[in-house]
Design a protein that fits this description.
Blueprint lengths: L7 E5 L5 E5 L14 E6 L5 E3 L1 E9 L2 E2 L12 E8 L2 E5 L3 E5 L7 E10 L15 E9 L24
Length: 164
Amino acid sequence: MCSSPTLLRPLRWAAGLCTSLAIGSGCAPPPYSTEPSIVVTWPLPETTVVGCTVVTVEVTNLLLTDYDDRTEDVPGEGHYHVFTPAGYLSAYVPYTLARFEDISGPVSDYLTVQLINNLHEPLLDADGNLYEYKVPLNFEPGPCEPFEEPEDSPGDSGMDSGMR
């Protein structure tokens, strides 16, 4: 336990600050990561989606930017691609509408999202791996049913904002 006096040794620094050094106590803070990441929060795995689906993502350590406005490579900036059986689309907001009305038939496949830099190239980690996330889904062809905007929502719902 971190508060055990037998595991702690107070240190006095020149500034007069007192800190404690935990020796073998396992009390080190969790590692801090500056690596970007992306996680799909919707749709849920193994669901059946017909014609289209809203895709929501959580992106950390990457500023999502409009790739039409930002065409130079800036570390820490980018967008993401959403891959479905119908192809891919680009997005720079945490939600987008993926359409696949015209796929040839029902298919079990992955909805995949990948982090992309401003030059439209996939972001890679130090080992050359893609920053991506896959969700297994059952895709079915069919019309993309319109989404109704909540009554208390002002203006455009933005369901396809950031999708190109």
